[in-house]
Each structure stands twice: as structure tokens, then as C-alpha cells.
Amino acid sequence: MGKGNALPPAARGVVCDIDVGGATPVAQRCRRVAPQFREKLSDLIKGLLSAKMISPSTSPWASPIVIIIKKNGVDIRLCIDYRVVNGLTQLMVYPMPLINDLLEDLDKVLWYCSLDMASGFWVVSMTERARLISAFITPFGLFEWNRMPFGLKNAPQIYQRLIDNALYGYLKISSDDSNDSEPRDVFLTGEAETEQKPSVLGRRSYIRDILVTADSWDTLCNKVDRLLEACDKWNLSISVVKSFWGLRKVDYLGHQVSMDGLEAHPKDLQALADLSFPSTLRAMQSFLGSLNDYSRFIDDFAIYASVLYELRESDFHEITRKKPKESVVEKAKSDDREEAPAGEDRWTRAERAFTVLKTKIAATPVLRHFDPDRPPVVVVYASKWAVSAALMQEHDGVYWPVTFTSRTLKSNEINYGIVDKEVLALLRILEVCYTLLVTRTIKVLTRYSTLGWLMQSTSFHGRLGRWTALLSPWTLEIVKCTKGEDEILGTLAATITPRAKVDEALIKIAPQKQPRQVIVMPPPTVEPEEKLLVVSFDGSVRVKRGGGAYSAIVWQLPQWKVVFAASEYMAELTVNEAEYRGMMLCLDLVAPLDRGRLIIYGDSNLVIRQMRGEIECKAPG
């Protein structure tokens, strides 16, 4: 099992089926393979045939292959492009575990085992229908899978359900299911397990990665024994070479877990820290997606990342054309205390935020495991355009972080008072850490005593009333930070930026967000004999036709004489685009006229409010 070059025994009680409804079979064309990879592909197919993973097929279905070059630059990996099949497959609804949930409840653990299930999806047999639909086409022929391959839409859910049932024992293997017969799915037979035993590990796993935890060596051995019994019962195998047994610290789901706390995996962090600034929007999105897994380790993460999320494809095209003489990255490394110019462009701020994020990646702290026996402490912070919060607990007289969370404010939230913003920060941490904090008394450290007054009042209306209702189930102890406490919170092993200096530290990368303007404009009035132009525009879309029409009319007052009227039709328009084009059409009509006073009417709230400056236009031009 170590090298995975033999067919693993089929797991009992589970099969993979692919339900495409009444869809017509789709046979895609064979893709070309580079000459240097053809022999390697042939050897891979021979190996899969020898291991009985695949069989020659006469299926009317055919999905193309994708050749992936491994890190050594020589070997290849065979993948199947199942996008068409997945688009036709009915989604299997099953709850996948959240990584944050799997990393909780570890405060009393002293011993760990990090185990990898051998062969993963390949232990799941396929139904006859699934074999036909899984067929893939190569230059050497058409083949179908006898075991569940990677890339199928419902493969993770099927395997996760198998592992959950093996660990918790909800359903039993049918008496008709023997090792020599065709496997039957216990989730179709639905026979409940008669022996009511406790769960094997007391926790879920994440697909094929299993974490065994214990507060003593004997307990660890007992759990491993029960796990091996469950694996034997369901015909599951553990990869010995990829598993770690009885250690004080193990790697699990991209993290290092130990009795000291939770650490980000150094190898993954180094790979992120070595990245240069992405040159395309897709590469930037990939970087942010990878970094988002470690957002809990970085205070004010969302604030820095928001600047990068603002970038659009046009920004990358524009910067590649400009080719500036001086690298913006070098500017980003300048003194952090220097404020950014008022008109600094989006790209410069993004480079600066990217540099700061990489610096923070290289110095991620150790997050302590949440201890239910220690009182939780929440520190909330609000600035003009962002809120952040940290969940901490006191160890040996020092506050240590458990997790960080943050977010930027929306345009309308920027207008809120500082106390309102701190409530947003508090609601944020309560939502993120709900399972840890529910039913507990929480000490909230704030810079303003008015937050405590807000929690005690019962006469609020509007948003304050709604927030008070949301906070009413919680037991909160609001404490105003003294200067000494604030200094302690700001010197925790370089993990938390001192709150008094956060605005100064972030000012150079502040997102280009402005408070939503509320312009009070009374309805226009017209004198009986006043001479002026009145313009009306409108737009509509017919979804079935896939297009839309827009029109504009210009009247001359006081006679209400129609000066111009025009309408146009375009394909592939949205409703807002049709309204915008109607507005542009009316402006084109009045351009050659002696306008004087001009009144424009329209029924699009978005277009009118953006013209009046009340709503920001996110993609001008």
C-alpha cells in the first residue's frame, strides 16, 4: 500500500453512482498529447489496466484527458476533464466538515496521530451506469473506471459519507453484502446499526485525512485500536508511509498542531512569501484564495486584502502597458510612517498591501487552543473604514490570541459613529467564533465606555435596536481599556498591532472607499412660461429574446413640443445596461441644442443616484 501500485480492496457498504437524469450521452473528441509524453501515458494506462482500476470501454460517453507534469519535470499525472459530465450530474447534498471546526477542541490534547487513508477515492466501487459515464478517451483508446476517480462532482461527498459512517456507526453493512458479492450502498439499504457504540474518535475527519487525539498515551492506543477495527470492518486501508503515529506535534490540513497551539505550516507559508506580485487577475485571485486559509493568523487581514480584491482585469492590462521606470515594489518598502499622496493610484496601494501581507505571512504567530476553562476576552477595534477583532485568553498574566478576524466597511457603514462600528466588530467576532463563545461570559475590551452604555439601554430603534436584539442572548462584560492594558495587548509576541497605531500603519494602503453621499434634492419646479428642455429616458430587457431596447425623448417647454425622440435595440443587455444606454442616448440628443436649463427624468434608481453622486460607480467607463 505504500507505493499505491496495487488495486486496494474495495470498501464495503459504499458505491459511486452518477445520476445525469435523462441527459443524452456526450462523446468529446480526443485531445492531442505531446510526443514526449505518449510513452509515459501508455505506461500509465497499462498500469491501471493491470491493477484493474480501468477497463476497455464501448460507452457512448467520452471525456478528454489532461496531462499534468509533476514537480520533478519528468513524470506525468493522468487527469480527466469531467466538466461536461459534472454539469449534467445531480448534486449530492451532504455536509462537508469545516476546517476551523476540525481544529477546535484541542486544548487538553497531548498526543496526536495524523493518518492518511490509502488510495482515497479508489477504494469506492462504481455502479454499471457510473462506469459508462466515467469513460475517458485517449490516443490509445476508450476506457472506463472500475473505481471512483478523482474529478467527479460528488466524489468528495461520497467518500466523506463513508468515513463518517465508519467512525460514528450509524448504519450497518447489509447481511447480503459479502466480500465476494457486488458491493451494496448502506445508504440505500438504510439498516441502522444495532450496537450502540460511542464514536471511534469523538470527532470527524476531513475526507482522507484523519486526526487522532488523546490526553494520555493509553487513551491514544485505545482510540487507534478502535480505528483499526472500524477500518477492518469497512475494508479501509491506512497508508503507513504517509501517516504519523504518537507525536507531540503533527501536520494536519495545512497546519501544525501541538499542545502549544496552532501554527501555519512553514512550507506553505514560505511558498506564499516567495511569490512575486501576480501579473494577472487570475493569479491574484489564486494568491488570495490560498492566503485566506491563514487569515485567522493575521490581524487586520481583510483590511490589507481588500485593496487587492479591488483590482480589476483592466488594472493589470494598464500596468503592463505603462512599464514604469521605478518598481512600485521598491516604493512599497519605504518608510511605513510616510502617508500616501491623496491621489495615489490603486496599483501603488495594492503593491504596498501585497508587501505588507507577505511580511505578516513570514511572522504568523502561534494561536493558542481555545480553553473552555478560561474566560474568553474579545478586543474590538474600529477605524474610519474598517473593523477588526481578536479573541484571546489569558495565560500566565499575558493575553494570547486564539483567532483574528476583520473586514472593511461598506460605503454606508463608513458614515456610522465609532461606537456603531465597534458593535460591527463585536458582531463579527461573535459570528466567526460562535461555537466557541456561545453560553459563555465574554469580556469585551473597548476604547470607548459608550459601548457599555449601549448594551444596557432598552430604548433604541432602527439599527441600534436590531443590534441590541442580536446581542441580547450574549453575556457581555464591557471594559474600557486603560492605557496599560492597551500596551499589553499591543506587545504580544508581535502578533497584534498596537491599537493606537493601527490607523497610522494602515493609512498607506487604505481602500478607495468614500462615505455614501446623501444629497437632498427637492423635486424640480417649473414656472408657467419658463423655457427649458425636459428629457426622459428608459430601458427594458426581454430575457427570452436575449436583448433589450432603450429610448429617449426631448421636450421643449412651455409648449411641450417634442424636439427629438429616438430608440435603439441591442443584444445581450442587462436591465441596468439598457437604462444606462437610454441615459447616454438622451445626452446625445441634447448635445447639439442650446440647453439652458435642463431636467432629466428616469425610473432607474441606480442610474439617477450615480448621476447625482450618491452611489459610487465601481466600473467607470
UniProtKB/TrEMBL annotation:
Kindly provide the name given to this protein in its UniProt entry.
Reverse transcriptase domain-containing protein
Q: Where is the Reverse transcriptase domain?
A: 50-257
Tell me which Gene3D superfamilies the record gives.
3.30.70.270, HIV Type 1 Reverse Transcriptase, subunit A, domain 1, Ribonuclease H-like superfamily/Ribonuclease H
Q: Name one GO molecular function term.
A: nucleic acid binding
User: Which InterPro entries is this protein grouped with?
Assistant: DNA/RNA_pol_sf, Rev_trsase/Diguanyl_cyclase, RNaseH-like_sf, RNaseH_sf, RT_dom, RT_RNaseH_2, Viral_Replic_Matur_Polypro
Per its UniProt entry, which superkingdom is the organism in? Answer: Eukaryota
Q: Name one Pfam family in it.
A: RT_RNaseH_2
